Automatic annotation (TrEMBL):
Membership in a protein family: Belongs to the cytochrome P450 family.
Entry keywords, A to Z: Heme, Iron, Metal-binding, Monooxygenase, Oxidoreductase
Species this protein is from: Actinomycetospora endophytica
Designated name of the protein: Cytochrome P450
Amino acid sequence: MTTTLRPVPAVGAVDPFSPEVLGDPLPFHAALRDAGPVVPLSRYDGLYGMGRHADVHAALVDWQRFCSGAGVGLSNFRREEPWRPPSLLLETDPPHHDAPRHVLAPILGPRALRRLQGPWFAAAEEHVEDLLADAGPGETVAVDAMPALAESFPLRVFPDAVGIPREGREHLLPYGDHLFNAFGPSNELVAKGAPHVAEHAAWVNAQCRREVLSDDGFGAAIWAAADRGDITGEQAPLVVRSLLSAGVDTTVHGLGAVLRALATHPDAWARLRHDPALARVVFDEAIRWESPVQTFFRTAEVDVPVGDTVVPEGAKILMFLGSANHDPRRWTDPDRFDLTRDPSGHVGFGMGLHQCVGQHVARLEAAALLAALAARVERIEVAAEPTRHLNNTMRAFASQPMRLHLGQAPS
Ligand code: OVM
């Protein structure tokens, strides 16, 4: 008698969180997509991976079978103690998910953000003025775009909009870096952050109290929802915590992505300069192209057949958002940054009921910064190859040395 064993694709034995894959994920993603719609990832007990756009998209909208309540990291909250109290937005399913989401969505929605449009465009102009100092048309300014633009601009506007005090804001980026590492396995990246998490977390948690928050920010609006009874007084600080968790590092690396795209695609920069309304498409295509949030996990609520595999109840499935965003089954010439494509349908902000509630905030930050740069900078030149900052979840840059060539304002 002969038995046929399903061959485990070789890519399934690779550690997707190794420094090699984190540093250069595209070859791994291509092999994963080619191996099938869902692939066992044998480095981690009972883990599966999905890398094709159609399957990742379908799983993300299927919250009944691919749930978030057991955590969206490798750790299964039904078996292991989470490192912090679970997020009421990210790490929950309906019905618990719904009240916090319905409270937060309008606070961060396009209508509410109109109030910030003028101030943020002005802040971006000031930010770029400070950076370029007294350099004039025809001159060149050398910058590292990560600290000088991608990090400092969100840190200038976002914490004020939430309404937290100035003191201690240096905790925000390291807190986020650890949080995004902690969705992955407890590897070296997590170990490196572990000695300082408690301090960062204590500070972040303290900023979520109503007494600490200004009376006109996103934080106060969340507490006002608690006063109305839309969420409880126990939920309010955790909803504020979601802003401080998900709203900083993500936009930093989203801006890093769009600056990388524009520095390496001078034609795109020229088009944007002459039509600043393109900023939105430029940003979304950059989010697709770079996918700053690379991965999130789901947990199978029941046995789920996918292709000729059954993902067993209780299994974790790693959704490769960055891979879905580069799937040639969905995108023409996917590795190309291309302003003529329609990037909508990318899963860089996720998809379905957990899709990024802060995406309008991110787009406004990008639009403001790009408009301010476009008004002064004729050409962005890569001065040296960027360096990566490795994180278990985020595709991030540590540095991006650039030369900004100043011009006259575009006509
Ligand atoms: C949250 C949270 C944290 C990290 C990421 C995220 C991308 C949400 O605490 O709700 O969404």
